[in-house]
Protein 1
Amino acid sequence: DTAVSQTPKYLVTQMGNDKSIKCEQNLGHDTMYWYKQDSKKFLKIMFSYNNKELIINETVPNRFSPKSPDKAHLNLHINSLELGDSAVYFCASSQRVFAAGGTGELFFGEGSRLTVL
Amino acid sequence: GQNIDQPTEMTATEGAIVQINCTYQTSGFNGLFWYQQHAGEAPTFLSYNVLDGLEEKGRFSSFLSRSKGYSYLLLKELQMKDSASYLCAVRERGGATNKLIFGTGTLLAVQP
């Protein structure tokens, strides 16, 4: 059973289009994240939701809009795609920090590779 | 500001020991993580340090010195499958958030 699953795994689209990436976790975690990994492999946080509430919102263009219908799902919608949006987008989840003595480590999905032409 | 530094690339020989260093300057500190990422795959958790000292987990160990803003990941008895990127990440102090700031990663190549 996949713990954190993302769809689609690959996405090729034209500039100006709108696209969505979906993420689901079956680990029972309260917190979910979106990270962007660019061509230099730098992994940067974009958003985080805790039990459907937005708690981290980094400096990201407002063309990016996350939505969390429930604590097991976190979707990412991107409007008016630009060439610079090409990257791998990783969804992740974690327990609340220090919940039950845990470390709060992130569990990542397999990534969604977005290519904007 | 936030700054996490790691060497970009390292090469080591199968069966040997390699140490990957990480130095950090962040807004508060609430734990340091090491992740492994094989090409085209998701990062996977390796180790966690929040207090000074060494944490050992099989062939992998991680060390932390908070006063020096320094950590290292030690890989023993290297295997070819250890060829991957190794990411150092620091969790910033900040209430209920679990914000991990990642370094750019160290690409390790293990040679026969």
Protein 2
Amino acid sequence: GQQLNQSPQSMFIQEGEDVSMNCTSSSIFNTWLWYKQDPGEGPVLLIALYKAGELTSNGRLTAQFGITRKDSFLNISASIPSDVGIYFCAGQSGTASKLTFGTGTRLQVTL
Amino acid sequence: NAGVTQTPKFRVLKTGQSMTLLCAQDMNHEYMYWYRQDPGMGLRLIHYSVGEGTTAKGEVPDGYNVSRLKKQNFLLGLESAAPSQTSVYFCASRKNHGGNSYEQYFGPGTRLTVT
């Protein structure tokens, strides 16, 4: 099945640094969602995007719905240790009942 | 609201044994989903349901069956477990319509090991 391409696959950063990750697809999506998964837990929804070009923030997190509708970006500012986890993007197209998930970006934060 | 709950949290099965995973949601959501998550593979959809009494196959349905007899519950069954079904299983649910209806909400997962 189709999966979205996320990059980077993993990143190690120092506390206080800003983080950027993105998600790309060969198909157009109408909705982009960003999830975070802590170790041993289920994914938790961070941000939902519904319009091309939309920029939405949730605390230190900011996500953008790409103009082409084939990509999305997530930025985390001033990272802290609890930002550690795996970040997944997910896209929905047309009237599909299902989401297409990215392969995840694993974030490690060092003190 | 408890949101989406899953039982059991952990289970070890021997090859050939059967079991049922239970997912329950108290958000009155129409849609429910079962995923499996394996290292490096992300989330893969097994089966899903768009309403009580209906089910549909996802990306990796072989070896699994599901039932949605009540709106709030979605059951995932393994009739004859195989080592390849060792994985972490997640249930999710979402609304059918209205604003933000494509947002899926996940349970905490069931870690299954088949020996």
